[in-house]
Design a protein that fits this description.
Elements (H helix, E strand, L loop, with lengths): L1 E5 L3 E6 L3 H5 L3 E5 L3 E6 L1 H6 L4 E7 L3 E8 L2 E7 L5 E6 L6 E5 L3 H15 L4
Parallel strand pairs: 7-9
Antiparallel strand pairs: 1-2, 2-3, 4-8, 5-6, 6-7, 8-9
Amino acid sequence: MTDLELTPTDLIVHVRGMDKLWSLASRLTIPLAHISQAAVDPEIARAGPHGLRVGTSLPGVITAGSFYSRDGRVFWDVHNPDQAIVIFLHDDQYSGLVIQVDDPPAAVRAINEAIDAHGPDI
């Protein structure tokens, strides 16, 4: 599970507890300028990642870490797909994030408002 922190320029994803071990990450900092949008999408989380992985994947229990496929590198940290959000990225080391948060609609709203308020980098 993750906690999100929004600053005027970045989204900081804090990985909680033992998920730091399973995902091999404790924190990700993503510039708001690299975020296309965020969405609530439990179906992506239910389908699970495809491709090579660096992390942990126990279907129905946890998916955590970096997964590499033809779509790029995607960071996952999900136990419960019903609490998963997807963050679509560009010009970043990741092509996306699939993460579990406490309140998916509120997290998506906050991220999308932050990227709208940030505007494009000039």
